[in-house]
Amino acid sequence: MSKDAQGSRTALTVIGATAIAATVLVASGCAAPGDPGSSDGDVVLELAQWWEPELPDGAFRELIDEFEAENPGITVELLSGPYASTKEQLFAGAAAGTMSDVVGLDGAWVSDFKDQGALADLSALMAEADYDESQLASQIQLDGATYMIPVVNFVYPMFTNDDLLAEAGVDAPPSTRSEFAAAAAALTELGGNTSGWILPLSLEAPNGIQNDVMSWVWASGGSMLADGQPDLTNDEVTSAVEYIKGLWDDGVIAPGAFTMKEQDKVEEFTNGRVGMMISSLAHINLIRESNPELSFSISALPAEDGFDGERGIPYASWGIGVSESSENKAEAWKLVEFLMSEDVNSRLSSIANAFPGNTASVPDFVEGDELFATAFDIYQSGYPANEFTGLPVAEQLMRLFDEQFQRMLEGDQSVDEMLSTTQEAWMNEF
Amino acid sequence: MTALFDRDTRSGIGPDPAGRPALQRRAALSRTYRRSEPYRFILPTAVLLFVLMVIPIIMVIGYSVMDNVITNRSPEFVGLANYVAVLGDRIFHTAVGNTLIFTIVSVVAHLVLGLVFALLLNTTLISRAGIAIFRVIYILPWLFTVAIIAVLWRLLLNPNGVVNYLLQSAGAVESGVEWLSSPDLALAAVTFINIWAGYPFFMISMLAGLQGIPRDLYEAATVDGASPWQRFTNVTLPQLTPIIISMTLLDLIWTSQQFALIWMTTGGGPINVTEMLSTFTYKLAFSRYEFAQASTSAVIILLLSMVLAFFYVRHQKARD
Q1: Residue A251: predicted pLDDT
Q2: DSSP H helices in chain B
Q3: Which residues, 6 or more positions from A233, have their beta carbon under 8 angstroms from its beta carbon?
Q4: Does the structure show a pLDDT above 70 at A11?
Q5: Would you say A273 and A194 are in contact if contact means Cβ atoms under 8 Å apart?
Q6: A–B CB contacts, 8 A cutoff, strictly below
Q7: What average pLDDT is seen over chain A?
Q8: Which label site among A216, B123, B187, B203 has the fewest CB atoms less than 10 Å from its CB?
Q9: Is the CB of residue B65 less than 8 Å from the CB of residue B79?
């Protein structure tokens, strides 16, 4: 064989090998990240969540290390990212059938993931593991089966800037809508770019509709649903939307609301430019770290004047679920069980400043911190309310509401028109 | 090996006649092998393009004619129903309008600013050190990633941000302007940000073009008594025309597909005044989980982009 021929064949081999390698590389890029096992025979579980970055450095990993020590042969790989990235990653994984074995869930996603067949039936896994369900504070069930277990719950009370309120001549945090409107007006009158209240309505992350708008309905015992179907034109929702429209027209809401996100809201409050906001308890530490001088309180959301019933308190959960595509469901359940166990759940809720998902767990901050003790009182005196949990395309429902809500605030339509248009749009999604 | 084989055959030296068909077969194989050489060179790229481009595009086109996919385990063929739904959607019309305004204004501004800054950087009136400093300053926006640009401008244009502070200090406005949150200003604001982020690419290309224009053309024009403006319109612009056309077509394609900047600054809002085809498609897919309709929208965008790509390729061929 000549050198030319040898060269050609070598070149062909190299090209062929490159092509095959490229194809294999591309194909492996599409392979399930949750593929079982590592080379040494251990089971590797992926846990995708947004919790780790929101907890003190290394705190979550420490708990996971404990799990690994208790369960030799199981390694947990944490896939951590911000909330929005985690969501996108999970939706892409659900679509491609490559979701991580164990996933952090928001109640708003559960219905959609369940419809896609992406989540495993936790009721079956619990039965298989002979798990005592009574220790769970709540479960998110659809069609009689559990798909998400809230690991910890964050309530959304009202935060008030004590110094600003005092400066505006307001003695105590408002507890009724009239008091709130008066306090917001007094705060805005202070001038110097100070606003009474802050309302994030970004369409990119429309959860302001859940936390900052619908919370007014729930705080007065109202509901946006009737028999599981949208009921936006009822008196309670109309009254809450009219009330917020009134605040908007009075100019007491901080500027920039239409593109503002949750983090902007917290930042404005932390900087002392806003007197009142509705926000998650999880933000207490962030506010304290960012502005140690800020003196603030938390209290229950104001209710309609004269309302003396039980107040609904908006909440959000760090939920957990198991991927249907996981080949290690039994091991995945062990991890869920570990996080829900009394001791671990106590510690997790303590470091997260949240309320535990295990009924027997008691976070240590309740006794040690006045603000959290107040929050616990608020939590216990009302009932957790979040009607978006478990609804189909929950985020889209918030976005549809948000678009019409912005039009209404702009004066393009009345409150009644806004609610009937949104009702129609919501019905199309159910 | 091939050459030796041919020589042997011609000279009659070699195996007995019974071996000739085998030799002829080997000769034919060898010719085929030689002729396939260029194709073997492009094989790795072709495989990658097929896997990463052709297959996804075919899949998306396939999705666009199903009732829904991914979230639906047994999708059914619905013909052009999704196209009728998307093309009849009021928000889609808004998105098309906004995309047109955003793209055309951005591209024109990129072109004008890029050309002006390139001319400034090409001047002989400033020292070399001065030009180097200005080059760094002018090119800075191009060095930032979209995420940083979005965060930066969100902070700058915040009602309590630097821009409003300066305007208020200068007495130009009484209270903070809601640049990104006002339905009247948001589209203009995101277009401005996009212009700021994208002009350096035009500027660099134009500068390269300007530096390639022979000096003698300017000297001849000067001898003929041409004014600076006449030199610009009769020498500079004609010489830059091929670059201008290529860059404009490329920028039209890129800008019409801008997603990250819009998503991270306004999310398509307020209301839907900054809704673009890209954000509309994203929301269909990841907010409503209507992956079939999102595919339909993506196919429509692909067709529109292909029209621009067609003109770009034709222009490039004409240049060659």
Answers
A1: 93
A2: 2-11, 20-35, 37-49, 55-63, 81-87, 90-121, 128-143, 146-156, 162-169, 186-211, 215-223, 228-231, 237-256, 260-265, 277-286, 291-319
A3: A416, A419, A420, A423
A4: no
A5: yes
A6: 124
A7: 85
A8: B123
A9: yes
Tokens at residue A306, please?
Answer: 């004269």
A72-118 pLDDT, tens digit per residue, is: 999 999 999 888 788 878 887 887 788 999 999 988 888 888 888 88
Contacts of A72 (CB under 8 A, 6+ apart): none
Fold of the CATH domain A158-299+393-429: D-Maltodextrin-Binding Protein; domain 2 (3.40.190)
Report how far apart, in Å, the C-alpha atoms of A211 and of each of A203, A321, A391 are: 14, 23, 15
Q: Which of B63, B160, B282 would you mutate first to test chain A, the one with the most A CBs within 10 A?
A: B160
Contact A2 B270 (CB under 8 A): no
Residue B19, pLDDT score: 63
Task: Tell me how far apart the alpha carbons of residues A247 and A181 are, in angstroms, rounded to a whole number.
Answer: 7
Question: With contacts defined as CB-CB under 8 Å, which chain A residues touch B262?
Answer: none
Compute the average pLDDT of residues A277-289. Answer: 87
Assess: ipTM above 0.85. no
Q: Tens of pLDDT along B137-155?
A: 888 898 899 999 999 999 9
Torsion angle, alpha carbons of B290, B294, B297, B298, to 10? -170
Per-domain residue ranges for chain A? 43-154+316-371, 158-299+393-429
- Best of B181, B278, B291 to substitute, by most chain A Cβ atoms within 10 angstroms, is B181
* Residue A384 preceded by cis peptide, ω within 30: no
Mean pLDDT taken over chain B: 88
Q: Assign A22 a pLDDT band (cuts: 50, 70, 90).
A: very low
Q: Which sequence spans correspond to the domains of chain B?
A: 2-57, 85-319
| Cβ contact A15–B41 (<8 Å) | yes
Q: Please tell me which residue of chain A has the smallest CA distance to B279.
A: A204
Total residue length of chain A: 430
H or E element that contains A125: helix A122-128
With contacts defined as CB-CB under 8 Å, which chain A residues touch B94?
Answer: none
Partners of A158 in the β-ladder: A278, A299
In this structure, CATH architecture of domain A43-154+316-371: 3-Layer(aba) Sandwich (3.40)
Q: What's the CATH architecture for B85-319?
A: Orthogonal Bundle (1.10)
